[in-house]
Amino acid sequence: MSRVQEIFETSNTPATFARNYLKYLGEIAAQINEQDIGKFVGIILAARKSGNAVYFIGNGGSAATASHFANDIQIGTRTTGKPFRVQSLTDNVAILTAVGNDFGYDCIFVKQLEALLVEGDVVVAISASGNSPNVVKGIEYAKQRHCKTVSLTGFDGGKLREISEHSVHVPSFKGEYGPVEDYHMIFDHIVGNYLMLYCRKHDN
The pTM is what? Predict the structure, then answer.
């Protein structure tokens, strides 16, 4: 039984479930390595300095998180200096459906990366399981192109955590997508807020 299911079984009201769920998120927070988040920020700042792009990929809820990351880093930082060149590869429905139809869903990110990547770019793969074939292929391709690779994972990290150059991991029970995706969005806001404040301090 997962912790979320256990929390449900032992909570007699929605409010109690909410309280215990939030308490569980606090327990997970204590196991997250903040140094990994710091290194992730450093990778994005280095890409900005070198003029390289950062591409986010993911499926389902992670696709939405990829879009949110791109928005918060590219636009939300409000930088007046050198821009962050950030793009989510989950947003163009025409491209996604064309590639899915013509080459297969496993290729929806690789085909875009083939057209976009240059050496030194960064590819960030977001996946709770770490085993989604299309994001794994995206990271494998990025490594072949001598690009930096980052994964945001959950559960046991899956293959993504093994093959990525850098990983920010949310330790959780297998199948607990909710807490993992909660923390991936928290990572977005930590990173986005830090970069916004960094730019405010150093770009003027």
Answer: 0.95
